[in-house]
Amino acid sequence: MxxxxxxxxxxxxxxxxxxxxxxxxxxxxxxxxxxxxxxxAAPDAxxxxxxxxxxxxxxxxxxxPPFRLMSREAKATRLxxxxxxRLYEMNFNxxxxxxxxxxxxxxxxxxxLGLRHVVVGADFCxxxxxxxxxxxxxxxxEDMGFGVTIARILEGEAGRVSxxxxxxxLSDGRPGDxxxxxxxxxxxxxxxxxxxxxxxxxxxxxxxxxxxxxxxxKHGVYAVLVDVQDGPHKxxxxxxxxxxxxxxxxxxxxxxxxxLFDFTGDLYGATLSVGLVQYLRPELKFDGLDALITQMDxxxxxxxxxxxxx
Length: 310
What we know:
Pathway: Cofactor biosynthesis; FMN biosynthesis; FMN from riboflavin (ATP route): step 1/1; Cofactor biosynthesis; FAD biosynthesis; FAD from FMN: step 1/1. Residues 181-308 form the Riboflavin kinase domain. Catalyzes the phosphorylation of riboflavin to FMN followed by the adenylation of FMN to FAD. Its EC number is 2.7.1.26, 2.7.7.2. This protein has ten helices and 16 strands. The protein has 310 residues and is of the alpha/beta class. It has two domains: 2-153, HUPs (Rossmann fold), CATH 3.40.50; 186-308, Beta Barrel (Elongation Factor Tu (Ef-tu), domain 3), CATH 2.40.30.30. Strands 1-4-3-2-5-8 form a six-stranded parallel β-sheet, sandwiched between helices. A six-stranded antiparallel β-sheet has the order 11-16-13-14-15-12. A two-stranded antiparallel ribbon has the order 6-7. The radius of gyration is 22 Å and the shape is elongated. The chain starts with a strand and ends with a helix.
């Protein structure tokens, strides 16, 4: 997959794609249906996705609480797995935000990227002040020579499939409902960073990861599926993870600490993808380390049983 970040400097081979347009946070089932429509609209054209970095919501409200379901790197990885050939990761800045709807259609879609066909959701808005609608885009496409498909909003077993509803499910400690809408386990991806090695001292060495910039799922302990994506220990593992502020050890910044079952080795610097399968319990403050270890033993036994049944 090729990543194009500047619509004003595009190689000829990167033009002419059939592209889905949106933010694609989480790359959920609704997003996948939009991408599939783009694939079918012009099967002989490169399959593309146009998204925006930073997320417009982050651009306009930089001090708002973290809301993203995945980092830009994790999003790109997921889109590549779906067969996307061109990722138009547009730099969302003052110039792009200031374009009128017609200016966006002409300057970015037609002249800049030369897209052959675009697919958007029924609630898609674009241009300065979000004044452009999906219907406006259809009209611009007719005038400017590119095709437009409006995708219907997808309803799933857990309700409307949307990033907002997925965030709510994760905040409630319902990763299974989130997975139903996503079409995959919600995953937190990143590099393993150094910690205080308390887990090692307790007999439970953990791989520590930052969750900075991401929507925080409900704090607590989870049964997890872990993919080590690089390094000598590359592979898939079962495990248990604690997400939160570690109340046993004072005031701490929230992070994710994952214990891999039946694993020995050094994971520092490796990239992990941790899939949240089931919420086991909230974070607790114990009377002492012996009580904590006893609970960790029970957590791991429960997680093993849950994951063995998948």
